[in-house]
Amino acid sequence: FAVRAHDFRHEAGGVGHAIYGSLVQALIAAVISIPLGVAAGIMLVEYPDSRLARPTTFMVDVLAGVPSVVAAIFIFGVWISVLKFNLSAFAVALALVLLMLPLIVRSTEEMLKLVPDSLREASYALGVSKWRTIFNVLLPTSISGELTGIVLGLAMFAILFLGATLGVAATVDGLALDDLVRRETMREDRK
């Protein structure tokens, strides 16, 4: 089942390769989108007056409304057609990054807003720098909500990409099975 096709006459096939590829894509997307999303969420809450805050908010809002098909076509158009990179798990992971980032950024942003100002002020009163306050006070306090956004982003991967992959695989497998049956009946008719 995992590494062989349902038809034992074939030497390769099965679902093992698809599972491995899906895990690689999810891992690549998580490695890229989690640090970027958490960093963007921190910037939007702790540095709201920076020059990057407004464009970042705008881009997160835009990405939140992008359908998965549009993200995939965009990555195909830029990464593969224009930049001439090969089709790869990395290209699919980039499309997934576009879909995961808004969830991670928004969950990080909202969880950091829920941290009481008294914790920030207490840290600053002790002479702790802003970055140490962020990493030692704010992030540990809001980690549960941030993990929720990360898990939701990975769940979106499971729903969108794996569901679409299974649908395509079932269609292709069904077509291959029909073709195999057609060839076998033609072979029997010739005899």
Reconstruct the topology from this structure.
Blueprint: H1 16-46, H2 53-64, H3 68-82, H4 89-114, H5 117-125, H6 130-141, H7 143-190
What do these coordinates show?
With 191 residues, the protein is mostly helical. It is built from seven helices and no strands. It has helices spanning 16-46, 53-64, 68-82, 89-114, 117-125, 130-141, 143-190. α1 runs parallel beside α4 (89-114), α3 packs across α4 (89-114) and α4 (89-114) runs antiparallel to α7.
Distinctive features:
mainly alpha, 80% helix, 0% strand
Global shape: elongated
Low-confidence stretches: 166-177
How many H/I helical runs? 7
| Strand portion | under 5%
Please state the structural category. Answer: mainly alpha
Elements, N to C (H/E): HHHHHHH
Count the beta strands.
0
Helix proportion: over 70%
Cα(first) to Cα(last) distance is: 33 Å
Radius of gyration: 23 Å
How confident overall, as mean pLDDT? Answer: 80
Biggest sheet, in brief? Answer: none
What's this entry about, in short?
This protein has 191 residues and is mostly helical. It has helices at 16-46, 53-64, 68-82, 89-114, 117-125, 130-141, 143-190. Helix 1 runs parallel beside helix 4 (89-114) and helix 5 runs antiparallel to helix 6.
